[in-house]
Specification:
This protein is 29% helix and 29% strand. With 152 residues, the chain is an alpha+beta fold. Strand 6 and strand 7 form a beta hairpin. The mean pLDDT is 95.
Amino acid sequence: MLKVGDPAPDFVLSDQDGRQHKLSQYRGQPVVLYFYSKDDTSGCTKEACSFRDNFAELKKAGIVVLGVSIDDEKSHRKFIDKYSLPFTLLADTDKEVIEKYGVWVEKSMYGKKYFGTERKTFLIDTEGKISYIYEKVKPENHAEEILQKLSG
């Protein structure tokens, strides 16, 4: 289980346009690495739009926003286009990164158990260490919550 102070596990994933991103390439900048379950679902859309609506402020603060789900590049491109998302979404179709970060978990809905991605966000500092973990994410105002944390 990852905790505050741990080095953030490095990875290489493709974005919505097929470009490769390596977490370590962002060293020197704070990174918001957020995990979500599925493109274009209600909670995930609210969360993505929260980042979109606060993106100018996040960018002004030098923060890189990276969203990760098990959806593929094509799904990410559609999601970005539909909601005008100005940040990068990474495709973890093999669940490699999701498992490294411990967010592939057993869930339950209507009494049925299944595995899925837990909504969780990791703040990664300029040295590549985890500085904060959001265990309970409120999708509607998650970006504001992060901005408050980073400003004070």
